[in-house]
Design brief:
Layout lengths: L2 E19 L4 E15 L4 E6 L11 H15 L7 H11 L4 H19 L3 H4 L8 E7 L4 H13 L4 E5 L4 H13 L6 E5 L6 H10 L6 E3 L5 H7 L7 E3 L6 H10 L4 E5 H4 L2 H13 L3 E5 L5 H12 L6 E5 L21 E2 L13 H4 L4 E4 L3
Parallel strand pairs: 4-5, 4-11, 5-6, 6-7, 7-8, 8-9, 9-10, 10-11
Antiparallel strand pairs: 1-2, 1-13, 2-3, 4-12
Amino acid sequence: MKITRISVYHVDLPLEHPYWLSGGRLKFEVLDATFVKIETDAGLTGWGEGTPWGHTYVPAHGPGIRAGIETMAPFILGLDPRKVLEVERAMDLALPGHLYTKSPIDMACWDIAGQAAGLPIADLMGGGARTPAPIASSVGAKTVQETREVMDRYRQRGYHVHSVKVGGDAERDIERIRDVEAHRPRGERILYDVNRAWTRQRALRVMKATEDLGVMFEQPGETLDDIAAIRSKHAAPVSVDESLVTLQDAARIAREGLAEVFGIKLNRVGGLTKAARIRDIALAHGIDMFVMATGGSVLADTEALHLAATIPDHNLLGIWACQDMLTLDIAGGRGPRNKEGHLYLPESPGLGVHPDEGALGAPVAIYEAGQ
């Protein structure tokens, strides 16, 4: 089997509500999504998606994905998509770094490999649990009252896992955390996500002031060095996501005891192939995990669900899915959807969901073997 054609689509995905990151530091209203269709000489077709969370969140750029695919396409065409390691190596040689550009190609190849084997991707990766995966909300709000309103909106949709954005003024963050904890229903799981916004002194002020609550923080500093510098000075559990990009990052975090949780963002780390290695580092060191689509449609959510299904239930804290935040559905209601705050693994071979091509518009680029 060989890859014969790669078609690339660009779609803007509007958010249902304006989204504020890091206590109002950054605002987002639309996501720049890239969809990739890979066709083969065996008649199988695979789909992938790369949707960074805007251009100002982390080093990832929507138009950069499409530019990266243009660079990598000549090296990918003619390869067997079932041999995901060969495709991975070809992409890494053609374009060192730029992991977010490789994620949609990797997803599409896994989709084809699953279809060829007659198995869902999670089963092809070694065995997928059918336990419904709890979805974590993403609560981006500026004030205490807005935070309450957004969390209530998610609770009405069945969510019981929440990622609450903090990272602004330290006193306001302390107030927000204490208010959320005061109104937390029994059994809810809440992660306070700083998105790298705190300086070291602000991190310590907030984390020390809330130690009595036993809450968990995600990415409380800009870098792993920042997290390491304050690690011995607070008692809060820590999750790392934005600074978890490469296998080397995962090894350092595990070796130095910098975090108790990995937040694996699939587009950020380069797709399922690379994410699976990070998962294994976590499992080998007793580190729990959240699995996240960096952003995007039900395709990106489903990719995250497949990886999550390969993680033992007691190590999986939740997945993050973006579909409930969007006003545009490119798959016409198909694929895994929120059911009382959970996603259920599809049983069909491959990814288990494909877009409605009519919703994508015309391709912005097509690359074919022999061009």
